[in-house]
Structures are given as C-alpha cells and as structure tokens.
Amino acid sequence: MIITITLNPAMDRTLRIEHPLQPNKLNRAASTSVEPGGKGINVSRAVKALGGESVALGFSAGSNGRAMKDALTSVDIHHDFVDVPGNTRVNVQIIDLDGNHTEINEPGFKISDGDFLRFLERVEHYLDNNNIFVISGSVPPGFPIVNFVELIKTIKKAGCRLIVDEAGALMREALKFEPDFVKPNIFELAELVGDEPTADPDQVVHSARKLLDMGAQAVCVSMGAEGALFASKNEPEVLYVNCNPKIYDEGAVGTGDAMVGAIANSLDKKLSFVDMAKFTVATGRACARLAGTEMATLKKVYEVYETLLVYTV
Fold first, then answer.
1. Spatial distance between the Cα atoms of 209 and 51, rounded to a whole number of angstroms
2. Is this structure's pTM higher than 0.85?
3. Other CB atoms closer than 10 Å to residue 195's CB: what's the count?
4. CA 231 – CA 197 distance, rounded (Å)
5. What is the H or E stretch that residue 243 is in?
6. Which of 30, 140, 151, 292 has the lowest tally of Cβ within 10 angstroms?
7. In this structure, are residues 139 and 7 in contact, taking their beta carbons and an 8 Å threshold?
8. What is the rounded distance in angstroms from the CA atom of residue 274 to the CA atom of residue 280?
9. What are the pLDDT digits (tens) for 206-261?
10. How far apart are CA 177 and CA 121, in angstroms?
C-alpha cells in the first residue's frame, strides 16, 4: 500500500484567461476549476490515474477541508485526515492563453503540538513494513523541524520504505535517515549539494552521487523537458531517460508529483530499476501535456513510453 502525507494540503483553484495576465486591471476568467491539492495529495491522484491505490494522510480544517475530503471521496481516493481548527488553505493558479502560469499560494494554518501527536497516532495505524510512505510538499506555518524529523524516524523505525520530495532544510534532515528514494529537481539538487543548476546529464550525475553520499538510497533528478536522471546505491549504472521528440511543458504544475506517484507505484509493483525510470519519465512528460494539475491516464503514459530513449551515464 502507498501512503501519502500532505502536511499542508490545499484546495487548488485554476483560473483560465484568454489573454496575457494584466496587473492592475480587471482580468476575466473564461473557466475555473477547483480540486484537492498539496503535493502529497497530487501524488495520490497520480497513483490513482496509474491504476494504483493509496491512502492520503494529513490535516484537514474547516469548510475547505470538508470540501477537500468530499472531492477525494468522489474520485475514490482513500483518505484518513486529522481534523484540526482553522480552514484548509486555497491556492490559486492563473493560466493565460499562451500557457503561462501565475501561482498564488496561501500559507496554511498552524498545527498545535497536540494535533501533531494525534497525527502521529494516525500514522502508526499504517506502519506495516510492506507499505511505502511518500512525504512531499510544504509544511504548515511555524511547523517545528523536530516534528518533521520525528515523523520520518517513526516511519523508518517501522521498516517502511520512504520516498521524500522536499527541498532545503527538510530534505537535509530527511537524508540523515537514509530515505529509499528522493526526487529533487535540478534547482533543488544544486542548492542541496552546493553545485550550479544544470540540465547536462554528465554534470547532474556528479551532484546526484553527492546525494547518495548524504544518505539517499536512490535519486531521481527531474529536469523538465530534458527528462530525468536516476542513480541508486543498489544499481551499477546511472540512467538518463528522455523522450524523442522532447515534450515541453504545457501544464508543468504537478508533473513532479506525478513522477513521485510513478516511483511509488513502480516500487509497489516491484518493477526493475530501468522500467521504473522509464515509467516515471513517461508519466511526468505525459502530464506535462495536460492542463493545470490533471494527471495522465495509463493510456497517455504508454503513448509517451514508446518514445523513450535510455542512456547510461
């Protein structure tokens, strides 16, 4: 079973306008949509689109939180949120006619120590060593890093596999506990290891190996239209995967989350390292073709899968 954790979930509102965004003027939306969001929830949505099953854990608050849970239930995504005071945040994405994205994200609500302890108790219900946990996305305002560390320690102590998609200090803390997979993009990777960001696979491989030295058991570095690079302590070769022709981002929001969902689904299905790498890139690039945070179906993923090229670096 795949268990996703979203500590700072949201309702994502997408507005589409039929002209470039004009500051200080009235911009009329041609269409609008609202769906549950936050990186972990997006991972659950990706897993569902790929034919897998997951349980989404996190915090829920107020009328927005109730709407979030109802929306997940309506698409048959299992969830087990801890209800807390406040109101789940709303993130707004504006997409213009040229496909340009403008995002405005609310900070979210604070979590008390008591609420966090209740959440840890909820997590303990899922500590089966056959389960795969995914932790991704921002944390609530004022969320102590010691609580983040305690969450990771709890999961790893139970022998569960762990995928982490975080940046900065959160990822550095996570690396101390040897997560089974991490998925930085090229900018997050560069910041973590002190290198310059680049999409050159021959350079990215050196930075990825630094993450392995820092504790990661395996790394997927996402590089947008340039594909992704995969390295593992348990594999003799580093893989670089991309599609031919390249697919450029039309709906870049959520493509990284889709890749994490594909990694989790691949681990759950016990795919080989090379098949997992191909499946992950195909999923991300298939989602890049779609609007907003829509997740690609298996049919769309396999259309991209057939165009993939795999290189050893």
1. 32
2. yes
3. 15
4. 17
5. strand 239-243
6. 30
7. yes
8. 10
9. 999 999 999 999 999 999 999 999 999 999 999 999 998 888 876 656 899 999 99
10. 20
